[in-house]
Write a structure and sequence with these properties.
This protein has 143 residues and is of the alpha+beta class. The protein has two domains: 1-70, 2,3-Dihydroxybiphenyl 1,2-Dioxygenase, domain 1 (Roll), CATH 3.10.180; 82-142, Signal recognition particle alu RNA binding heterodimer, srp9/1, CATH 3.30.720.110. 15% of the residues lie in helices and 35% in strands. The protein contains two helices and eight strands; from the N terminus they run E-H-E-E-E-E-H-E-E-E. It has an eight-stranded mixed β-sheet with strand order 2-3-4-1-5-8-7-6, with helices on one face. A hairpin with a 7-residue loop joins strand 6 and strand 7.
Length: 143
């Protein structure tokens, strides 16, 4: 299981990622936009969201750093735009940690299957720390 930093931007994520790629001489990031996600007629995607970064990551000096833009209309506060991401292939461990951290906290998204993870959820714990949880299968070369 890993705990990784997740940085949130207010519409300038792509610019920041390009900057960090150059600063740290990393491989070019694969960027998933909100427009890349499957459409849901119940929740039409606003035009201004389509090209915003939904998720990307860079390997910076051996650490994975993840990035996204806020969704239009979601609150954004400089200083509170860092979350911790728990990424593991152990779904039971992920669920156990999520259940314990949500005690006294506020769940943003209950653990559920998404198009990018078989088990994803997010919450703010009782101390005000924002967490994201994501089940990620090990790469075949790691098994």
């Amino acid at each position: 299981m890993a705990v990784e930093v997740y940085l949130i931007f207010n519409g300038n994520c792509r610019e920041a990622v390009t900057f960090y790629e150059q600063v740290f001489n990393t491989d070019k990031a694969e960027i998933m936009t909100f427009g890349d996600s499957p459409s849901d007629p119940s929740y039409p995607l606003p035009e201004e969201a389509k090209n915003l970064v939904m998720h990307t990551r860079l390997s910076i000096l051996g650490s994975t750093v993840m990035f996204s833009d806020t969704f239009p209309g979601s609150p954004f506060t400089i200083g509170n735009n860092v979350t911790l991401a728990v990424v593991t292939d152990d779904e039971a461990q992920l669920r156990q940690a999520f259940e314990k951290l949500k005690e006294g906290g506020k769940v943003t998204m209950e653990l559920q299957e998404t198009f990018w993870s078989k088990c994803y959820g997010s919450l703010t714990d009782k101390f005000g720390i924002e967490w994201q949880f994501s089940h990620e299968e090990k790469a075949k070369s790691e098994n």
